[in-house]
User: Fold this.
Amino acid sequence: MSLFQSLFGPDINDGVAEARATAGAVLIDVRTPQEFSAGHIEGALNIPVDAIREVERAIPDKAAPLFLYCASGARSGAACQTLSRMGYTSVQNIGGIGRWSGPIVREER
Assistant:
């Protein structure tokens, strides 16, 4: 881990690029539905951290590469630990959307 990553967490921009380059990868936003609708990364699936066990229904393949993010990286880190305990073998916390430099998708209200 680089000094930057140890101070600021993973780089979400690198994580999204890796997810998009990985066959079968799923990008998961673990923020609340309200946070998600206010703005998320295109193609992300919203599974809030407090409902992370629902991932088994949405993604039954425990070997699927999962890339998780939230607002800061804390909730996605906790969700990664839960998913690993559930038997998912390729889970990565890519950090917080606050450092995302790409476009944000907002839902109409």
Remarks:
- The chain has five helices and four strands.
